[in-house]
Amino acid sequence: LEYSNSGIQAIRAVFTIWALAGQLDVPGGLCFSSLGNHFPINRSGNVANPDVNLAVARDRFPLYTHYRDESHATGLIDAVLNEKPYPIRGLIVQGASLLTSWPETPVWEETLGKLDFMVCIDRQLTADAKYADILLPAATMFEIDSYM
Q1: Residue 12 resides in a domain
Q2: How far apart are CA 73 and CA 78, in angstroms?
Q3: Is residue 49 part of a domain?
Q4: What is the Cα 56 distance to its own chain's centre?
Q5: How confident is the prediction along the chain (148 residues), in pLDDT tens digits per residue?
Q6: How far, in Å, CA of 117 to CA of 88, rounded?
Q7: Do the domain assignments include residue 144?
Q8: Total domain count for the chain?
Q9: Contact status, residue 38 vs residue 32, Cβ threshold 8 Å
Q10: Which residues span the domain enclosing 16?
């Protein structure tokens, strides 16, 4: 059982409240700052991408690839359906749902349906789970020692 102790849903909720109140990124409200043109992201625990030049959709989302060091999810559609820039046949979806998070649900259904292998790891049975070959439960905050 594995999930993240990053509190991402709590962070999203807090930022949503700030945004609904009109107090996000405005003088006197919660403002974001960065060091020059660099977005400070702690990636010290990540394994380096062996070749970011192979990231799908890198040509369409160069800034995303530059700062995230990974492929953009929308590139998955062309890679699975059209094998461009290369074929992707398997996917691990952790704590997310492509079908409910991205537009053009029918295209994503076709994409997930064409995969040879898919794993879903989540706390809920998401829409993506019906396409998964393996479903793994994700732990809640009550099951992870790092929350204590």
Answers
A1: yes
A2: 10
A3: no
A4: 14
A5: 445 555 666 677 778 888 888 877 777 777 666 556 555 666 677 677 889 999 999 999 999 898 888 899 999 999 999 999 999 999 999 888 999 999 999 999 999 999 999 999 988 899 999 999 999 888 776 766 655 4
A6: 10
A7: no
A8: 2
A9: no
A10: 7-40
